[in-house]
Amino acid sequence: MNLQKLIQQQDIVQNGIIGFTVEDAYPLLFFSYLLKHQQKLSDPIIYLDINSCPEKDIKAQLETSFLGMKRTYWLGAVHQLPKKKAQSWLMYLQKYNGPNGIMFAISDDLISPYKESEQSIKIVAIPAQVNKAMLAQLFTCFVRELKPMDKRYIDKMFIGTDKINIDVACVLMHYVQVMGSKSQEFFDCWLDQLVIPDKSLFKLSQYFFAQQFSIFFKMWSKIKDEYPEQFWISFWSEQIWRALFYCQMMHKRDIIAAKKIGYRLPFSFLQKDYRQHTIEHLQQAHQWLYDLDVSLKNGGSSIGLDNFFSRFFSMNTE
């Protein structure tokens, strides 16, 4: 089942046991909206912390009914458990025939072995990004029927991009509700800070971390004037900050933490290009961007970004 079919249902818990597959980081805001919506349609959802509560206590609760009534339990992100423990939970849920409804999030790679077999787990794919039509559907499902002004706001949010990260989309749904007379200020000052405007930015970041100087500068020269300097500083600061901590986690062999922080980094960096960078160099690069931000806010030259790229590439070839 996909997300579109899911939100068309009145009561998602009717499917019994549901595993929501996620592509990237755990979309916390999306699941917050989804669970609040579900609680309006049925009985309250009970949260069980499988990371800290004893496993036997959780299973005892799942297998017990209260006065003969069905309850619905949310287990959270099963894939954030150690791999063997997550697999153990999946085997348990596959065979579960208790009286309650159970929902949980899981990565696609962990749930894959269970997709082809006959089992009780219904799988719903949650995309990492949504398009304009899906955002409108989510808004209608989770918030209210779209008003003409809501539609205009959503149209403006997708100028320059085809898709938006699903959690960012949930943030935007909140802004649509409260913008009012300050909508222009939001679009002028904040939208570019929330939305990665175009997939070309991911390509640009890929060439940056892969040290492909000539391709990077050709692409940079074409798109650098499309967005203000403050957007670029924010974008590159986040990219380098995530890259820095991704490298740290990989050095510690903490793969789960690395996957979380690696969200929004280029796939090639996550697979191999991170080995071209040291923690010290990334720390230095982040400090340069901070200094550049201070300089621009005090009337400094916009050529600082070009200087930053030159220093970054030179630093990694020393």
Fill in the keyword field for this structure:
five-stranded parallel β-sheet; 318 residues; 57% helix; 11% strand; globular; 17 helices
Largest sheet: 5 strands, parallel
Number of strands: 7
Distance between the termini: 51 Å
Q: Number of helical runs?
A: 17
Q: What gross morphology would you assign?
A: globular
Helix/strand order = HEHEHEHEHEEHHEHHHHHHHHHH
Radius of gyration: 23 Å
As laid out across the biggest beta sheet, the strand order is: 2-3-4-1-5
DSSP strand content: 5-15%
Percent of residues in helices comes to 55-70%
What is the mean predicted local confidence, pLDDT? 81
Q: Which class do the helix and strand fractions yield?
A: alpha/beta
Low-confidence stretches: none
Describe this structure in words.
The protein is built from 17 helices and 7 strands. It is of the alpha/beta class and 318 residues long. Helix 2 (28-41) packs across helix 8 (166-178).
What's the SSE blueprint?
Layout: H1 3-8, E1 17-22, H2 28-41, E2 45-47, H3 55-62, E3 72-77, H4 83-95, E4 101-107, H5 108-115, E5 121-126, E6 129-131, H6 132-142, H7 148-157, E7 163-165, H8 166-178, H9 183-189, H10 191-194, H11 200-209, H12 213-223, H13 229-251, H14 255-261, H15 267-271, H16 279-297, H17 304-315
Parallel strand pairs: 1-4, 1-5, 2-3, 3-4
Antiparallel strand pairs: 6-7
Helix pairs in contact: 2-8, 11-12, 13-14, 13-16, 16-17
